[in-house]
Amino acid sequence: MNIAVRIGAALTATLILLAPALWNGFPLLQYDTGGYLARWWEGYLVPSRSVSYGLFVAAGWPLDFWPVIAAQAAVTVWVVALVLRVHGLNGRPWPLPAMIAMLAATTTLPWIAGILLTDIFAGLAVLALHLLVLHAERLSRHECIALIVLVAFAVATHSATFLLLLALVIVASAISLFHRATVPRAGIVRAGFTLALGAAILVAANYAVSKRLAWTPGGYGIVFARMLQDGIVARYLDRHCPDPRLRLCPYRHELPDNADAFLWGDSAFDRLGRFAGLNDEMRSIVLESLAEYPWIQIKAAVAAAARQVVAVRTGEGVLPSIWHTYGIMQRFTPSAVPAMRAARQQRGELNFEAINAVHVPVALAAMALLPAIVLLGRRWRRYGDLGLLAATVALAILANALICGPLSNPHDRYGARLAWLAPLVVMLVAFRWGKTNAPAGGPGGRRIRPREGKSRGRTGGR
């Protein structure tokens, strides 16, 4: 393929992904954006706010953060292009922009590529890890190195992404023990090295900003809030209070029954010092309630995971009233504030109801088709590679639900950041079917018959 045509196709696909942000007039923002952005200036660690991603966002400030989402969109196009090539669907220039256009029209992909948030890297890391483990022989050395860097950075951007990828590597390692032809041992080694590199980047970035060798904090507080919403904390406090160890006892009758209201609203959590003030107490309640109410905990965790699987709506937290993020930008990046204030999001012109009328059924239907594609790959050899990709995506969606639902409480944001992978797999199968069943003369052409001489050569002598 002509290099100019390939570049043109990639640029077209990138612009398609940037369309929502370009229409908005500014990169999209969310509740958590400010927490990431502030890490460089505040110089200390905050629960669930990656320093690595915060530094990446801060680097784009001089140009109103456009380089950040341009890089996110370009990397997305590159990974999808690699997937197309590995699966034999890049013979012509049109599949890449066509695939991106279909994903942009039917999934959350352009909205998470154009937002200042870590979500885009979760799905990209799943695809990149799949390529590194199962298809490295079809990639150049430089492409493998670039994918390793991408996955390592994704690991450093969010602890949930690290746990998700770790779960996939554990499953792949187990399969490799019995079916090394399916999952090569070298792929497992590459994956393990990549996760270790990501962990090192995370700790190094945290040290560079806070001068502490530490993982990104926040685990027990988030789990505590989920248990609060499920009624487990109230049961524990009713049983143990009054107890001089528990500062929450005087507030137990006024605690909200919503995790977000407890963590981010006006609650006793603020009055008792938030994560720094309550971390030890929340850890004790989490661990002791796990021992005291194991069956209740299991039922609550399963229910949360089930809700998380189907929580895939686009646009959670992309609102005009994200005051914390606005305050952070006014304090640390004031030159970007006029453009941010002029954006459609900040004027209240974003509405995701019509968008989700398409995105949600497409995501759920595609997710439901993944087991069928796995079976298709096992039965028909020409779909075997796509069956493995479908298995990877299905496992990733399930692992994501088992991690995010019980640990962080179900949120549409957590589901949407992986849900676009299922339509991608379905579209790849449709492309493969179209390519396999197209007339040999090309689209619209007649099928080319084998020459008689060759035909006789195959059957002669019978």
Could you characterize the architecture of this molecule?
The protein has 462 residues and is mostly helical. It folds into three domains: 3-217 and 313-353, no CATH class; 219-292, no CATH class; 354-437, no CATH class. 70% of the residues lie in helices and 0% in strands. It is built from 24 helices and no strands. Residues 440-462 have low confidence and may be disordered.
- How would a crystallographer describe the biggest sheet? none
Termini separation: 43 Å
Give the overall shape: globular
Report the radius of gyration as a whole number of Å: 24 Å
What structural category arises from helix and sheet content?
mainly alpha
Q: Helical residue percent? A: 55-70%
Unreliable spans are 440-462
Write down the overall mean pLDDT: 90
Q: What is the N-to-C succession of helices and strands?
A: HHHHHHHHHHHHHHHHHHHHHHHH
Tally of domains? 3
Share of residues in strands: under 5%
* Number of H- or I-type helical stretches: 24
> What's the number of extended β-strand segments?
0
